[in-house]
């Protein structure tokens, strides 16, 4: 297992960026050297952290290193900088494009990973769950699957927020700086429902989705709402709702379940 921190100049961000990487490269026996997986490259997961977190969170607080090795999946963990993995047109910082396109292209050039869409996943928790859904759909040509745990699906609630209000997490002005005009978020490319409608209208493949949220999580209602929308649109997805809160105990359990789902669903697609 190789554990690395990589710095490179991002054209989208117009500066140097940092991400952590896990590369399970220990399987070097002769019997595996010519396997189909080794020839085409490792499967990959772009794994996003939550609000007030950093690119070190998944390594520090979760089992992701063990899971990367077990499932033979490369994991790349970039920084979201409390910006919900969205572009900022005013500052000309294209964080969403960096996550959904530039980072994928860079890692495919640098590491022995598969370039196939069905071998490429994006996932995250809370803010990162939203970022995974938004960018997994926005850049659906790159991702075969989306993993979203306790997703902070703020587009559902932001249009009702008023100036001079603080919702206990951040202020109206903060959300406006990240999402733009809050009254216009629904129906924009920051709205997962709108992104799915656009993919269906253009007859493009929608990534398979795995959603999980605890019944004691303060974000349960917005995750339920997205689940109901996906059902109404007949979008292929797995939804797990079970006991748990907005904690690493829950995320550790369900990142393990989600990776198992990702590998099994990929194998089923290959067979069919």
From TrEMBL:
<dbReference type="Pfam" id="PF00756">
    <property type="entry name" value="Esterase"/>
</dbReference>
<dbReference type="InterPro" id="IPR050583">
    <property type="entry name" value="Mycobacterial_A85_antigen"/>
</dbReference>
<dbReference type="InterPro" id="IPR029058">
    <property type="entry name" value="AB_hydrolase_fold"/>
</dbReference>
<dbReference type="InterPro" id="IPR000801">
    <property type="entry name" value="Esterase-like"/>
</dbReference>
<protein>
    <submittedName>
        <fullName>Acetylesterase</fullName>
    </submittedName>
</protein>
